[in-house]
Amino acid sequence: MFTILLPALLIGGLAAVFGLILAYASKKFFVEVDPKIDEIASILPSANCGGCAFPGCAGYADAIVQNGAAVNLCAPGGEEVAKKIAAIMGVSLTPKERDIAVIHCQSGGYNNTAFKFEYKGIDSCRSAATIAGGPNQCIWGCVFQYDCVKACQFDALHITEDGMKVVNEDNCTGCGACVKACPRSLIELVPISKRVHILCSSRDKGPIAKKSCGNNTACIACGLCVKNCPTQAITIVNNLAIIDYSKCINCGICASVCPTKAIEDRMLPRKEAFIHEDQCIGCTICAKKCPVQAISGELKHPHKVDPKLCVGCEVCVKACPKNAIEMVEKGSTVALTKEN
Amino acid sequence: MEYIAKILIMAVSSIFINNFVLSRFLGLCPYLGVSKKLDSAFGMGMAVIFVMAIASAFTWLINAYLLIPAGLEYLQTIAFILTIAALVQFVEMFIQKSAPALYKSLGVYLPLITTNCAVLGVAVININDHLNFLDSILNGFFGGVGFTVVLLMMAGIRERLEKAEVPKSMQGMPIALIIAGCMALAFLGFAGLKLG
Fold this sequence. Notes:
The complex is a heterodimer.
Chain A (H helix, E strand, L loop, with lengths): L1 H27 L6 H9 L12 H12 L10 H12 L9 E5 L21 H6 L16 H5 L5 E3 L5 E3 L9 H5 L5 E5 L4 E3 L7 H7 L11 H5 L5 E4 L2 E4 L9 H5 L5 E3 L6 E4 L9 H5 L5 E2 L7 E2 L9 H5 L5 E4 L4 H7 L1
Helix pairs in contact in A: 2-3, 2-4
Chain B lengths: L1 H16 L10 H6 L4 H33 L5 H23 L1 H7 L2 H5 L3 H12 L4 H29 L11 H16 L8
Helix pairs in contact in B: 1-8, 3-4, 3-7, 3-8, 4-5, 4-7, 7-8
């Protein structure tokens, strides 16, 4: 009897002692976890994309509560999630504009790439780009093994029939996964309201850049855009024009003067501004804001837009305090003026 | 001086000659599971060293002062598992409270080790080899170091392997197992080492 009872008692007693110690320890060493952390973690989308620069959604929730990280960093969750987190944390929310990915290269498809050799290796941009400077003649351009498409968790990058990559602006959350995936650093996160982009990343000198670009749309650093930019938003660094998006007003002048079509204007087809004279109070704000001096008129008298000069940037529409300016189809200003 | 020499011999013996993973084949689960990235392999290794050392100490005490006096040596396995599980849980709580930085760096690896058979293995080996209390702790510590060394080597190889062109049917686990086999063969070379 004793030979059975002793081991049972010993192991049972050991387990009971350990159990008691652990129970005591869990009370004694209890670490208070802020209930807000759990609450925020349940709101976050659990995509764990890392776009907020914290290790996963739980890490971000922790950082908000413990270290006071900003509440609007979750790109996939967007404004809705930011609002909820702000409500939990009791802070006011400063609205943040949504970023989208812009690929600064117009080459990188089956039909518009100048090849140095045919690449037949593992299908990864990182690998393709390391072999002899990449299969493209342009050492800066897209090698289209689609690392960016693979990195995208939100189905925002698609491959067209001729092998080009297109960003679906509705799906793009601006998480930055593709930015990290691209070995040639072609992708940049840009506020969605900015509609004019330089789609070239070549730092080669003009003739080389143009020759090695299969699409012939390389930036040749001619400086025309710099000269014509009304807000001095463009600078040329290392043979490449770069837009300072904080200064860009979407006027699109640079895109229209670029001789190689390296600059894309996503506001096309552009409309022109038309001032409804009955609503205009002649405050002159629009005339002052117009980057191309297309608006003229005297103080307290209705203003007019010169349709020949207007570039359709919509700056005046946003500036007008009376909402008297409307964007109309190109060429329809004449007809509208006659009506009045 | 003699003792230092003994420690050195013990270190070489449990790190290389009787490596827990490659010659005793213990702890293979984390060896294959956590060896995909160097960072996580290092975290796991540190946690294993830590747990193996203290588990050696506690299981030795349990054996010497509970099991042997009661004549219940045949209960070793179950008693050790119980001890290790409770110990790891306790240590985790203790570290979380007293050293949050250490807790964060060991992270999820601590509770994972409860089921690592290298930890139970070192406890049983200590008893079978009739080691004394201090030697048991050293054996546990160096056993953990050996585990970490091999884990880091494996992680390094597998990181390089990510880039290599591996036939499709061999990708992932198959090639990892073959590499593990090659490493075990290489470590077999240490078996001829004569110490002392």
